[in-house]
UniProtKB/TrEMBL annotation:
<protein>
    <submittedName>
        <fullName>Uncharacterized protein</fullName>
    </submittedName>
</protein>
Amino acid sequence: MTSENHPVSPPPGWTMDSEELDYEGEWAAVDSWGYRIATSYKLGKCTPTMCDPQGGGLIFEGSGKFYMVDQMSGEVVQIILPGKLGEIVLS
């Protein structure tokens, strides 16, 4: 369950735009919600992968696994299968 070496295109309505994902502001900063998710669930360093700016969904990678978080409710769910980002996008 690791990142892939070839590019993956997000599904319609989702984006992988670095400005939308805002790693520095939403994940790297100690007072950010992404950092709090990573430490609360003991996931180590987490990296946002893609998001749905209109629906509030976000997929991120932490400890070699993929997770989906609903930014509105804060619910975090581990994506067990499929385990690769390209397969997740297709499912």
